[in-house]
């Protein structure tokens, strides 16, 4: 077989399978590799085929994955299309060391990296073309994934796990995810893709790139979609899209680009559903509820005017879901000045977020709720009993024994959060390569600046609901001995107005300086090091709160503002460092090692609802040793890692059904995790390949001891970290048939058991899930894609009920409880045209 044929076969398999070597080979690059192979009469070096890594470094030269001294996973264009993730979080499922929760919908996901027990995106940062999507991706109810959507303008993803991510980026102690956009070429080209789904999905994606004149190039792309949601709330769940325009000018020794992106998109926030443990020990949805496709949100809780203390109404509109309106402007400049490479990236964001959701706070039997409120009868002369009745059909009495087959009710929270954010970020760096005999130093010095302005308002009320799909509103009614209603205690299903109220504002300014050096000791050994000093100053105000009694049970404890403001003005700074080395044994294998001492500074979210908060700097040490092997038939990357996380702060919120209030405990703990990450791809035949990732780890709390309000010592030292599995596995076998026109693959995932709380009192069982995808290429232009998500309709639980307490859950020992399972089986079909 000719060398070029063998090489093209390897490239083809990598691009079709999306193997974990993350090959991203341009036609020109491939041709150069083929020519080199033909010239030498042997196969080209495997390192020539590795994708060029642009994330987690700042040198002048190029660096392939095989040559990096840290863990990195690449997800190329074809692999993205075959996986077809429905959210940012879902796109990270194939990254070892990451535990992802994407069951909440297209935004507001959770990622826990290398055993760090931080919600949302508090341990990693999201980058769009190398610049942060949001300076802090965990900014108090504002996850970074709310402000970013995947579409055909994204070419590939690079994920740095640990390593130097915290040297080059703020708020990235455990990693950085870089969504790299598609760039226009020397001729006009484009993509159009239309997707439909069995849940009312209609989505159009497009991208077009073309040269303009002699020096400029333009690209334009985006998407629009609308659907009812896999868990149909009875109204449109997801609606909106985005548009992106990019202009690039090639300069002598550099480039200049302007990028504008506008997003107006709203997505449903899926929350927990009523579950129970059956007699056979299996966890299923309660009778009368579809655990695969059901949601408590429904038409009766879609839009409610919630009374406020001043008599006005807060318009709670759950059809808004998480509604983000965002304008992003980016300017990038790169120029080589006689060996000195200057790069500057400027980004300005204006983001308006309205985040509405129907949160299930408490699940209990209807009879226990009536019994607990029996004292209310004394307020209504002649009343001898309490009943629950439907708001829309007040003559219908709720059967406390067997309504909906379960006799359960939910005390839900209608929560509305308004959080506009303006951000200005700039990252400037200068790099120079110095030759010292047979050695070299590639040195970079950078300065990062970020200014963030955030406002925050929250208002919430509790409602009484039955436990069924699209739950209906209930009223508590006082009745006489004959069952005749004498008074309605609740108000149109509202149990308590204003159980949450916040009003705050803040501004932060961040300055960071970083220095890195890539020291090439010899042909086989390179040593990398870096430092980052960062300082953040924050100031703002939080309005004080008071309770108002407007004379009825639902209006007796409405939180509102005092008109007085508590101010805060705080500053924090810290120095972090990293050192690593890469020893390339030969063209096919190498070894790397790295140690990083890093930190995470407090942010505006630390103060936005509490001006007197006393946050502390979270510090951590991360170590890793990795082995890499790549050849034409097999690629393997194995990394052993260690994570010591100090002073991880978290709040324990517990909802009290009797008072209608959420109480907060602020706690700190250390964690320690030892683990092994594996990723690889095996190409035994031209028509078959299999890729895999696996994580085995021992995530533990260290020194987590405290005395609770009952003066009882709680000792959770050595417990497994909250919602972090010890074992996870993903295997993707694929078949290339009909001359590679047909690609079929089945992704299998196994997630080990986790715990809802730090006390490890509520277990989330291990689960398995299958996802099918296929692609048929009619020709070079037209392709058809098919997807079946959650093929086996797995009811795997990703989280319990955080509102029952995440330190020691109130659901401990309960037969019925709130939990959030995977989204049920769904089908999608897409047609794509390339030109």
Automatic annotation (TrEMBL):
Its main location: membrane. Residues 314-791 form the TonB-dependent receptor-like beta-barrel domain. It is a multi-pass membrane protein. It comes from the Bacteria. GO terms for cellular component: cell outer membrane. Belongs to the TonB-dependent receptor family. The lineage of its organism: Bacteria, Pseudomonadati, Pseudomonadota, Gammaproteobacteria, Lysobacterales. This is Outer membrane receptor proteins, mostly Fe transport. It is found in: Cell outer membrane. Residues 65-176 form the TonB-dependent receptor plug domain. GO terms for molecular function: siderophore uptake transmembrane transporter activity. Keywords: Cell outer membrane, Ion transport, Iron, Iron transport, Membrane, Receptor, Signal, TonB box, Transmembrane, Transmembrane beta strand, Transport. Residues 1-30 form the signal peptide.
């Amino acid at each position: 077989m000719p060398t070029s044929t063998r090489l093209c076969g390897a490239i083809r398999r990598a691009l079709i399978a999306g193997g974990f070597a993350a090959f991203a080979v341009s036609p020109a690059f491939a041709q150069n590799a083929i020519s080199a192979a033909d010239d030498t009469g042997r196969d080209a070096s495997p390192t020539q085929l590795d994708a060029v890594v642009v994330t987690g470094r700042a040198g002048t030269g190029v660096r392939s994955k095989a040559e990096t001294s840290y863990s990195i996973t690449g997800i190329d264009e074809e692999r993205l299309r075959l996986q077809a993730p429905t959210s940012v979080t879902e796109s990270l499922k194939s990254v070892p060391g990451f535990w992802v929760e994407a069951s909440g919908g297209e935004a507001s996901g959770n990622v826990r990296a290398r055993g760090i027990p931080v919600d949302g995106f508090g341990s990693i940062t999201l980058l769009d073309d190398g610049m942060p999507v949001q300076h802090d991706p965990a900014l108090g109810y504002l996850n970074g994934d709310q402000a970013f959507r995947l579409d055909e303008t994204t070419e590939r993803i690079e994920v740095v796990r640990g390593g130097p991510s915290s040297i080059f980026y703020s708020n990235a102690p455990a990693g950085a995810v870089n969504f790299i956009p598609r760039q226009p070429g020397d001729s006009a080209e484009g993509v159009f893709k239309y997707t439909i789904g069995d849940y009312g999905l209609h989505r159009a994606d497009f991208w077009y790139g073309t040269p303009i004149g002699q020096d400029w190039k333009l690209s334009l792309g985006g998407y629009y979609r609308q659907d009812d949601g896999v868990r149909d709330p009875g109204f449109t769940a997801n609606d909106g899209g985005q548009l992106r325009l990019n202009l690039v000018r090639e300069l002598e020794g550099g480039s200049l680009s302007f990028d504008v992106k506008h997003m107006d998109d709203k997505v449903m926030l899926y929350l927990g559903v009523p579950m129970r443990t059956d007699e056979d020990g299996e966890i299923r949805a309660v009778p009368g509820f579809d655990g695969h496709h059901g949601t408590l949100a429904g038409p009766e809780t879609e839009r409610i005017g919630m009374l406020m203390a001043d008599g006005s109404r807060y318009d709670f509109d759950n059809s808004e879901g998480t509604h983000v309106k965002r304008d992003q402007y980016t300017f990038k400049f790169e120029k080589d000045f006689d060996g000195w490479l200057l790069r500057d990236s400027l980004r300005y964001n204006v983001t308006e977020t309205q985040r509405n959701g129907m949160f299930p706070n408490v699940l209990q039997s209807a009879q226990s709720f009536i019994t607990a409120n029996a004292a209310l009868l004394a307020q209504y002369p002649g009343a001898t009993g309490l009943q629950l009745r439907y708001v829309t059909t007040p003559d219908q009495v709720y059967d406390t024994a067997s309504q909906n087959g379960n006799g359960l009710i939910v005390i839900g929270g209608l929560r509305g959060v308004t959080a506009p954010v303006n951000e200005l970020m700039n990252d400037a760096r200068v790099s120079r390569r110095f030759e010292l005999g047979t050695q070299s130093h590639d040195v970079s010095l950078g300065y990062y600046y970020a200014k963030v302005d955030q406002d925050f308002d929250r208002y919430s009320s509790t409602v009484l609901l039955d436990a069924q799909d699209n739950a209906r509103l209930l009223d508590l009614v006082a009745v006489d001995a004959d069952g005749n209603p004498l008074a309605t205690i609740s108000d149109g299903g509202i149990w308590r107005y204003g159980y949450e109220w916040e009003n705050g504002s803040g501004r932060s300014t961040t300055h960071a300086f970083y220095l890195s050096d890539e020291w090439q000791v010899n042909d086989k050994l390179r040593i990398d090091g870096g430092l980052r000093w960062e300082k953040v100053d924050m100031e703002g105000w939080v309005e004080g709160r008071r309770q108002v009694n407007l004379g009825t049970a639902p209006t007796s404890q409405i939180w509102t503002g005092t008109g007085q403001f508590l101010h805060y003005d705080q500053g924090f700074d810290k120095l972090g460092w990293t050192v690593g080395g890469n020893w390339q044994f030969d063209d096919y294998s190498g070894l790397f090692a790295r140690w990083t001492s890093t930190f995470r500074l407090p942010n505006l979210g630390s103060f936005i609802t509490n001006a007197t908060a006393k946050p502390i700097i979270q510090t951590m040490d991360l170590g890793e040793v990795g082995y890499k092997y790549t050849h034409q038939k097999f690629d393997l990357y194995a990394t052993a890692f260690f994570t010591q996380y100090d002073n991880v702060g978290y709040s324990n919120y517990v909802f009290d059904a009797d008072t209608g209030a959420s109480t907060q405990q602020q706690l700190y703990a250390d964690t320690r995790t030892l683990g092994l990450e594996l990723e690889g791809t095996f190409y035994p035949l031209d028509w078959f390949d299999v890729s895999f990732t696996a994580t085995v780890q021992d995530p533990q709390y260290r020194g987590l001891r405290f005395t609770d309000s009952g003066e009882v010592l709680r000792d959770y030292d050595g417990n497994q970290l909250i919602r972090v599995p010890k074992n996870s596995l993903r295997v993707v076998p694929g078949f290339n048939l009909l001359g590679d026109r047909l690609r079929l693959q089945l992704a299998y995932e196994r997630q080990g058991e986790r715990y809802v709380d730090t006390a490890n009192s509520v277990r989330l069982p291990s689960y398995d899930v299958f996802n099918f995808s296929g692609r048929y290429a009619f020709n070079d232009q037209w392709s058809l894609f098919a997807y079946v998500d959650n093929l086996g309709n797995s009811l795997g639980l990703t989280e319990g009920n955080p509102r029952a307490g995440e330190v020691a859950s109130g659901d401990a020992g309960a037969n019925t409880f709130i939990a959030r399972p995977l989204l049920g089986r769904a089908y999608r079909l897409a047609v794509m045209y390339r030109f």
